[in-house]
Design a protein that fits this description.
The protein is α/β, with parallel strands linked by helices. The protein has one domain. 44% of the residues lie in helices and 13% in strands. The chain has a 3-stranded parallel β-sheet, sandwiched between helices. The termini are far apart.
Length: 103
């Protein structure tokens, strides 16, 4: 439900590609010549993999990442140089942080 709400928040300003797991996100990032990605919005609690693998691949491809979670302990565990957006958030806050991440 959260994912669907985020899509609704973003669909007017972004083309949204969805991955429901770490494995799916990595598969997309490893696709030969994937569509350009301006920014990744990544939930810290995606299933079936290691979040660090997606972060490493995004860093390798110079794709900015905004991490999200409803668990404030996730922010404490992250590298402070990473952008972090705690849930719940407003559409305005989401758009602002994504625009900042894109540069």
């Amino acid at each position: 439900m959260v994912r669907e709400t985020i899509v609704l928040m973003l669909e007017d300003d972004y083309e949204v590609l969805l991955s429901d797991s770490i494995k799916a996100a990595l598969a997309y990032l490893h696709t030969p010549e994937p569509a350009p990605i301006e920014v990744i919005l990544l939930d810290c609690l995606l299933p079936d993999g290691n979040l660090a693998d997606v972060l490493a691949e995004a860093d390798l491809k110079s794709i900015p990442v905004v991490l999200i979670s409803g668990d404030p302990r996730q922010a404490e565990a992250m590298d402070p140089s990473r952008q972090f957006l705690p849930k719940p958030f407003t559409q305005a806050t989401l758009l602002k942080i994504l625009d900042t991440a894109r540069g």
